[in-house]
Amino acid sequence: MAKRDYYEVLGLAKSASEDEIKKAYRKLAMKYHPDRNQGDKAKEAEEQFKEAKEAYEMLSDPKKKAAYDQYGHAGVDPNMGAGRGGPGGEGFGGFAEAFGDIFGDIFGQQGGGRRGGGGPQVYRGNDLSYAMEITLEEAAHGKDTQIRIPAWEECVTCHGSGAKPGTQPKTCPTCSGSGTVHMRQGFFSVQQTCPHCQGTGKIIPEPCVTCSGQGRVKKTKTLEVKIPAGINEGMRIRSAGNGEPGTNGGPAGDLYIEIRIKPHDIFERDGDDLHCNVPVPLTSAALGGSIEVPTLGGKAEIEIPEGTQHGKTFRLRGKGIKGIRSSYPGDLYCHIAVETPVKLTEHQRKLLKELDESLKKGGEKHSPNSKSWTDRVKNLFK
Predict the structure, then answer these.
(1) Are 201 and 147 in contact (CB under 8 A)?
(2) Contact 190, 183 (CB under 8 A)
(3) Under a CB-based contact definition with an 8 Å cutoff, are residues 172 and 194 in contact?
(4) pLDDT per position as a tens digit, 100-128
């Protein structure tokens, strides 16, 4: 079967630049990589992957590209003598470079691994999480505080080498100092972290007794933390570079401080709003008047009308919390809880009985809710 035109395979014009060729190949390699195509489509995807790979090998090499542009497939066929290298020949360096990028995209390069200048693998440190418990008042108004977190410092005995004083680390014989080993899987080579040196490229025959060969010792450090006003339960504060240190000179991870808000004795938070139950004596609810209620900023007064019922809600605008992303503070909702008097004296009992008799003589006008409820019960059993 005749080979397709390499430019057609990559979906490019002959005037495509080196960068455009590389991008087109990356896109196809991601799409047809065997690890992303299983089952019935596996065989077809593998063929398309090989086709794209071959096209890139030729067009990414300036000499082969020039020969292909002038003579077509014959110009790069090693059996014809017109081109050198073919698949796996001179052009393999360019392919390996692009394939390395693809490989990183497909497998995500866990931990931020990368290679610089042919040296050992460089990895970003892991992120750390810290749970901080604060009060509702601190969440509302903000707070500057300190926390102590684990940290690593260079070992003073070996000065970071990990080797016993008077000795030196040696180049890893397994990976020859590269930090990686190559394994052949099918038609392509897989690069893995060296299991012998764990990607460092060196081994330590005589480890430092202070740090056990790690080159660093674990300490604790104090970190200043600014909690912004309006923060809510579950939000996280990022402290860049205060996570675990990287490997082989890689950057440190980040520290994420997750906020936990302690239960409050009076208030419950709902977003930017606050809710509280306000106990009101039976007589005050019946007669009405002014009552004092708490807020996070002090005290406030609300007027309750005569005959206020249990469960009535009063809204105080702007007495809630101003959230981090809010333009205005929330509201405070005061829920009236009418209290029934307890531990009555004989005199108080007598007065209540007289009041009860008086109210009964007045009929339903004194208890409209009771009349409505009684009617609903009667209808239920008809």
Answers:
(1) no
(2) yes
(3) yes
(4) 444 433 333 444 555 544 556 677 888 88
